[in-house]
Specification:
By secondary structure, this protein is mainly β. Strands 24, 26, 27, 29, 30, 31 and 34 form a seven-stranded mixed beta sheet that branches. Strands 33-32-35-36-37 form a five-stranded antiparallel beta sheet. Strand 5 and strand 6 form a beta hairpin. It is rod-shaped and about 180 Å long. It folds into six domains: 114 residues, Sandwich (Immunoglobulin-like), CATH 2.60.40; 96 residues, Immunoglobulins (Immunoglobulin-like), CATH 2.60.40.10; 88 residues, Immunoglobulin-like; 83 residues, Immunoglobulin-like; 87 residues, Immunoglobulin-like (Sandwich), CATH 2.60.40.10; 33 residues. The N and C termini lie far apart (207 Å). The protein is built from two helices and 37 strands. It binds 2-acetamido-2-deoxy-beta-D-glucopyranose (3 copies).
């Protein structure tokens, strides 16, 4: 019975033992298994996993006992080796050894193979498509490993321009590889695609992608460059001509263009946003430094060009002006100005028109000063502006206002006149405005004076009652002047023995011009009349 019992127990134990061994046999594996392909720079975790062992102990090694190049993390049933980032030092066989208790030991290895092909090629096209100038295409393949498996193809559309491989490379780490190719573009190459195909062909490595491709249009995104301004018809056009400034540049996409003009005072005037700046009729003030600024918003490049424009020509119409005014009174200070522009600058002559060439007042400048003018300064002034292209002339009248002057009486006939004949007395005077002239006849007997409103007084069939003092008055708002003449009738034509020639005596009285104030006029009149008699006597005229 006991044996049976024992046997049962043993059997049970054996059975259990058999069962246990079947389910929980000590095993290990490395995940991932076999050949591991990792890209340099990424994270690689190797896991050494066990089953069937309660407390395994782990050990990681590389072949030839190189450094592990990673960090080990042990857990109860598994251990990890983390390589972050995985680098060229991790290119080894890794061996994981697991001990379970004293006796049991298992180990496995994996091979870590590395590559690097992280990004697409970068194309740089060095020059624009200017006829006759070569284009250089540069294709860069960043961070390649192993580069001795790299093949590069440059294509223009489907046409292969250039092929290059790096089989001879002896690379030990990632490298950026560059392929350069220059060619002379044809006109129809504009817009064609340049493609760079990079292949990292490693037969026994499983990774994607093994081919990377980048394309760029041949005219895409360059400039601005070779910016310049062309001026038509030239940098020194004649005044009045149309002027066209064209800003020429090489840029893709089309750039923004801003025109500016540098002014003499250093400020800048903004002009239009267009590549052509058109001035229909160039003026002297259009001379100056023009700036064309070109901005490519895609390449974010800016370029400037400048041109100095000098408008040439004969002087434009001279402008004359008078300060304080074209109409002045005697005694005022007057300046006459002439402005005329031209290039080359004009020679200016400013003088009175009626004066001879070098007679004063005369100016070789833009201003003629006439201090304290008199009536003699009045008249037409001219400004002559001249350079090698021609001359321009203009005129202005200086009107100097003054009271009556040089009042004169003339009598016809001037010599003896007989009674019964006709006498004509004419009074003239200068003044500005022209004086109003009138005659008055004074009588001795106190009868009222007779007034004649004409400058010429004619007495026909002269008689004794026509004798007396005749007074001429010249008047304007700036004053008046008077002259007098005395007519004496001494004989009659019918009595030849008594016939004495009619004597006409001139009694000249110069009146001082006075303002129009009644009392003053009255007083001055009296003074003049008195003066007239004494003057006549002083001159010793026959009376
Ligand atoms: C280890 O292997 C067991 C059984 O195959 C599995 O269930 C477990 O998830 C693995 N552990 C790790 C860390 O891979
Ligand atoms: C363009 O260039 C300026 C300075 O040169 C810079 O501040 C700006 O960020 C650039 N813009 C772009 C889009 O590159
Ligand atoms: C004219 O100019 C002189 C000198 O410049 C000055 O003394 C005089 O007062 C001026 N006369 C008038 C009327 O302005």
């Amino acid at each position: 019975m006991r044996r049976n019992e024992k046997t049962n127990v043993e059997n049970a134990a054996e059975f259990t033992s058999v069962l246990f061994t079947v389910v929980k046999a000590f095993e290990m594996e490395i995940i991932p298994a076999g050949r591991i392909v990792a890209q340099i720079g990424e994270t690689l975790i190797l896991t050494c996993n066990t089953t069937g062992c309660a407390s395994p102990s782990f050990s990681w090694r590389t072949q030839m006992d190189n450094p592990l190049g990673g960090t080990v993390n042990n857990n109860r049933t598994y251990s990890t080796l983390t390589m972050n980032p995985v680098s060229i030092v991790n290119s080894h066989d890794y061996l994981c050894t697991v001990f379970c208790g004293e006796k049991e030991k298992k180990e496995k290895s994996v091979k870590v193979k590395l590559y690097s092909f992280p990004s697409d090629p970068v194309i740089e096209i060095s020059s624009s498509l200017v006829a006759g100038e070569p284009v250089t295409v540069i294709c860069k393949i960043p961070d390649v490993y192993p580069s001795d498996h790299l093949e590069v193809l440059l294509k223009k559309e489907e046409h292969v321009l250039h092929e290059e491989n790096f089989y001879e490379d002896d690379s030990t780490n990632t490298e950026t590889k560059t392929v350069t190719y220059s060619f002379n573009p044809m006109a129809d190459d504009i817009g064609k695609e340049i493609t760079c195909v990079a292949k990292l062909l490693i037969a026994n490595m499983d990774f994607e992608p093994k081919e990377r491709v980048t394309s760029q249009k041949l005219n895409a995104n360059f400039g601005p460059q070779n910016t310049m301004i062309t001026a038509s018809p030239g940098n020194s056009p004649m005044e009045g001509d149309p002027l066209k400034l064209t800003c020429v540049t090489e840029s893709s996409p089309l750039p923004q263009i801003v025109w500016r003009k540098h002014l003499a005072d250093e400020s800048i005037q903004h002009l239009i946003k267009n590549n052509v700046l058109s001035i229909p009729h160039a003026n002297f003030t259009d001379s100056g430094l023009y700036i064309c600024e070109v901005i490519n918003l895609i390449t974010n490049k800016t370029e400037k060009a400048t041109v100095d424009i000098v408008i040439q020509g004969a002087p434009n119409t001279a402008e004359l002006s008078i300060e304080p005014s074209t109409t002045v009174q005697e005694g005022q200070n007057v300046s006459i100005q002439c402005s005329a522009e031209s290039n080359p600058p004009p020679k200016i002559i400013l003088r009175r028109k009626s004066d001879s060439a070098d007679m004063w007042p005369y100016s070789e400048g833009r201003m003629l000063l006439l201090p304290s003018v008199t009536f003699l300064n009045g008249g037409d002034y001219e400004c002559v502006a001249e350079n090698k292209f021609g001359k321009s002339k203009s005129e202005i009248t200086l009107n100097v206002e003054y009271g009556p002057k040089n009042t004169m009486i003339s009598v016809i006939p001037a010599t003896a006149v007989k009674e019964g004949e006709t006498v004509t007395m004419k009074c003239t005077s200068s003044g500005n405005p022209a004086p109003v002239i009138s005659w008055k006849k004074k009588t001795v007997t106190g009868e009222p004076e007779k007034i004649f409103k004409d400058a010429t007084l004619t007495i026909q069939n002269i008689k004794s009652q026509d004798l007396g003092l005749y007074e001429c008055e010249a008047y304007n708002q700036f004053g008046k002047e008077e002259k007098a003449v005395k007519l004496l009738v001494e004989g009659r034509l019918e009595k030849p023995d008594q016939m004495i020639p009619l004597i006409i005596a001139f009694s000249c009285v110069t009146a001082i011009a006075v303002p129009v104030v009644a009392i003053l006029i009255y007083m001055s009149r009296k003074a003049k009349i008195n003066g007239s008699y004494s003057l006549v006597k002083a001159l010793g005229l026959k009376v």
